[in-house]
Amino acid sequence: MRILYGFSWYRDALDQGEVMGGLMARLRAAGIDIEAETLTIDPPGPPLQWPELDRAWRRGDRRLMLAYERLARRLEGFDVLVNGAGINLHPEFVRQLPTFNVYACFDDPESSAVLSRPVAAAYDLSLVGNIAELDTYRSWGVRHVRHWPLGFKTHDWDPTLTRERILDGARDNDICLLCERWTNGRRERLDRFSAAFPQGVYRGTHWPLGWLPEGERVPLYQRTRIGPNFHNSTGPINVRTFALPANGVMQLCDNNSHLGQLFELGKEVVGFDTVDEAIDLGRYYLAHERERREIAAAGFARSVRDYNEVAVFRRIERHVREVSDPPARRPDLGLATIVVARVNRRPDLLLLHWLRVGLARGYRLARAMARETLIALRLRPRR
Fold first, then answer.
1. For residue 179, which of 40, 80, 97, 255 sits 20 to 30 Å off, Cα-Cα?
2. Cα distance between residue 342 and residue 60, in whole Å
C-alpha cells in the first residue's frame, strides 16, 4: 500500500521538514512505501482548533481551500492517507477523499474537545496514541479504533548501547526527569518527587535551569539509573515512555494499569499510582542496583524491538489491513477539481468536470453526482 503521511510543521528548534524527510527515507529503506506532506496551513505554525477550523470551512476560507487542493492533488496514486497529527482536515472534506483515511492523535484527553472528538468518526480508522483513551473514541461512535504508540525516533537514543553495558556499565546520575513542570496541576506531584531526590537532574519549562540542550539529552539518559515519568492525566502517552528504556534507564511510570499493556510490570518497567508510591519505589531501586539493572535491560530489549520507528510505522500497515485488505479506495471523484471550484466560487467548473465524467461513465450517474456535490459543498451560481 502507498501511504501519504500528513504531519504538523510547528515552530521549534528542529526543522520539521528535514526531520520528517529523514524519517521517511529510513522507513522507505525498511520497505514501507510512504511519503510525507505537511498539513499545516502556512508552515511553520500552530494547527487550527476545531471551532476555528469549522468556521474556516463553512466560509470557504481561501487559504484552507488552497491547502485542501494541494493535498487532493498530492494524494493521486496513494492508497492511504494518515493524518499523523490529527490536524486541520474538516470531516466533510475527509469524507470526500478517495483514499483509505486514517486519523492519529497523541493529545487526548486534554485536547479531545477541540481536536479529535469532532473529526475522528469521519475517518475509516482511528489510531490513538493514548492507550487509556480507546474506549473514549468508541463512545464517540468511531467504528475502528486501534492503539498506535509514539515510540522513539533515531535521534532519541544511541544505537551503540548494548544489554551488557546496561548490566555492567557505569551510571553516575541517579534520577533524570525532562518535562514541563507547570501543566494541568502536575507541578505539585513533580515538586514532591523532586524534593525527595534532590540529587536528580530536572530540566524543562518552569524548572530553575530550564530546558536541557537537545544534544545533551541522550548522553544524560545513558548516564541515568532511574527515569520517573509523570503524565498530565491518563496515559502512558509521551516519548519518555519509550525513550527512557531505549537508553537503558529503568522507567518509573504512572498510569500503572495502562502501563502494563505496553511493558511487563516489574520486569521491563516499574509502575506506580501515587507520588508516595513513586518515592518509595525510587528509593528501593536506588538501593537494589542489580534488580534495577535487570529491569532496565529487559525494558531496553522490549523498547528497541517493539517501539523503534520502523516497528511503529509497520503497525499502520497491519491495522489498515485488519480493517480493509487491500485498502479500499472510493471512486475517484476528481477532488482537486471540486476543491478548485469551491475556492473560486465556480460551480461551472464543477459541472464541466461532471460532464466529462458523464461522457466516460454515463450521463445519469454524472448528473446525480453533480447535483449531490453542489448541495454538499453549498455552491451557488454567481448572480
1. 40
2. 7
- Domain 3-151+310-323 is in which class? alpha beta
Percent of the chain having pLDDT more than 90?
73
Return the axis-axis angle of helices 335-343 and 62-74, rounded to nearest 10°: 170
Which has the closest alpha carbon to 316: 36, 87, 117?
A: 36
Question: What is the pLDDT confidence band of residue 149, given thresholds at 50, 70 and 90?
Answer: very high
- 34 touches 5 (CB < 8 A): yes
Residue 139 scores a pLDDT above 60: yes
Which one, of 204, 225, 217, lies nearest residue 155 by Cα?
217
Domain with CATH 3.40.50.2000 in the chain: 3-151+310-323, 158-307
What's the pLDDT band for 381 if we cut at 50, 70, 90?
Answer: very low
**Which of 35 and 352 is assigned the larger pLDDT?**
35
Q: DSSP letter string over 343-369?
A: HTT-HHHHHHHHHHHHHHH-HHHHHHH
What are the angstrom distances between the C-alpha of 211 and each of 44, 194, 201, 217?
A: 22, 16, 11, 10
Using alpha carbons, select from 293, 220, 227 the residue that is nearest to residue 254: 227
CA distance 264 to 269: 7
Mean pLDDT across 111-139: 98
CATH topology of domain 158-307: Rossmann fold (3.40.50)
* Interacting residues of 360 by C-beta distance below 8 A, sequence separation 6+: none
| Chain segment 303-341, per-residue pLDDT in tens | 999 999 999 999 999 999 999 877 776 666 566 566 656
CA distance 96 to 98: 6
Spell out the residues 6+ positions from residue 139 whose beta carbon is closer than 8 angstroms to its own: none
Contact 256, 249 (CB under 8 A): no
Q: Any idea what DSSP says for residue 327?
A: P
Among 151, 157, 115, which residue's Cα sits nearest to residue 131?
A: 151
Q: DSSP of 13-30, one letter per residue?
A: SS-HHHHHHHHHHHHHHT
Helix pair 363-377, 347-361: axis angle to 10 deg:
150
